[in-house]
Amino acid sequence: QVDLVESGGGLVQAGGSLRLSCAGSGRTFSNYGVAWFRQAPGAEREFVARINWSGGRTSYADSVKGRFSISRDNAKNTVYLQMNSLKPEDTAVYYCATDPITIATEWGQGTQVTVSS
Predict the structure, then answer these.
(1) What mean pLDDT is predicted for residues 106-112?
(2) For residue range 30-82, what is the model confidence (pLDDT) as tens digits?
(3) 40 class by beta-carbon count within 10 Å (0-12 exposed, 13-18 middle, 19+ buried)
(4) Following CA atoms 100, 1, 37, 9 in sequence, which dihedral angle do they give, to the nearest 10 degrees?
(5) Cross-strand partners of 70
(6) Which residue, among 35, 14, 2, has the nearest Cα to 91 in the 3D structure?
(7) What is the sign, positive or negative, of the torsion defined by CA atoms of 104, 60, 38, 25?
(8) Among 5, 15, 71, 81, which is most exposed with the fewest C-beta within 10 angstroms?
């Protein structure tokens, strides 16, 4: 089992950038794919991006493709989400989880991203 903690959120103007971090504990972190999700107020949690265990395969939601980039550093047990050209509609709490999520997935506190217009 891997415990994940999100950080790096904040308040940014539209067009700005933020880099989120997802730090994992445990020696088996590099065995897991990781995905980012987000949940805006009053909305369902939605998929944002995923990366496989080695970092060699990634995929994105259409809404963030070309603006967000997911990467990982297994030596640091960390997955990153670089978010550029942010829009007000990107405002949400962002969560990371091992991929694929299951009914047993335990969600952390997340990190708040607020994009002002």
Answers:
(1) 93
(2) 899 999 999 999 999 999 999 999 999 999 999 999 999 999 999 999 999 99
(3) middle
(4) -160
(5) 81
(6) 14
(7) positive
(8) 15
